[in-house]
Write a structure and sequence with these properties.
Blueprint lengths: L9 E6 L6 H13 L3 E6 L1 H5 L7 H12 L7 H4 L10 E7 L1 H8 L6 H11 L4 E7 L7 H8 L4 E3 L2 E3 L9 E3 L4 H9 L10
Parallel strand pairs: 1-2, 1-3, 3-4, 4-5
Antiparallel strand pairs: 4-7, 6-7
Helix pairs in contact: 1-3, 5-7
């Protein structure tokens, strides 16, 4: 499937609980909207329900609604029809935690985000993952490797975010999110993948 890049469509953007990256991801969602994309936001249970030192869940929901014009999806019932009803051209998971990658690699669709991904893959739609995890080069490495080999998965380029203090931690360059989406819609993995 290819998307005409001169006429952006609809994309789902799911945010998982790597809370320290939310402030960096939101401007990229705004960039997608500015490029003409209709963005349907989605939140994992952690992102939707936990207040952290990085912000209150209600405030993140409000900001997403203001940017996109849509209330974030938070339930399995909202995620399930995405693919069958062709509600979006692609899905982005940014940030994508090690837990979410592990569930996806194992084929477990028990969360809103993983069911949304399964729903999109059902119709062969691209899924773009933007890893952000402290165990990307340890516990989550196997899941990351498995997903790198699967059809319809694309990755926002990533690298070590603090190689001395957190040597196993990986984080995407979220500024590459819009370009990764456009490449994925052409069936191309943006390069270089490792930064």
């Amino acid at each position: 499937m290819t998307e005409r890049l001169d006429r952006p469509g609809t994309v789902v953007v799911a945010m998982c609980g790597s809370f320290c990256t939310f402030e960096v991801v939101l401007p990229q969602i705004r960039r997608l909207v500015e490029r003409g994309w209709e963005v349907l936001p989605m939140l994992s249970a952690s992102a939707a329900g936990l207040d952290t030192r990085f912000g209150r869940a209600a405030d993140w929901k409000q900001r997403l609604t203001e940017i996109t014009g849509h209330r974030p999806m938070e339930t399995l019932q909202q995620a399930e029809p995405l693919g069958p009803q062709k509600m979006a051209s692609a899905m982005i998971v940014a940030p994508c935690t090690g837990t979410t990658m592990s569930l996806l690699a194992a084929g477990i669709s028990s969360t809103t985000v993983t069911l949304g991904v399964k729903s999109m893959l059902r119709g062969g739609r691209p899924v773009i993952l933007a890893p952000s995890t402290n165990d990307g080069l340890s516990g989550s490495a196997g899941a990351l490797a498995a997903l790198l080999q699967r059809k319809h998965y694309y990755f926002v380029p990533f690298g070590q975010d603090d190689s001395y203090k957190k040597p196993c931690s990986l984080k995407s360059d979220f500024t590459l999110l819009p370009d990764t989406l456009e490449a994925a819609l052409r069936g191309v993995q943006i390069q270089p993948l490792l930064i």
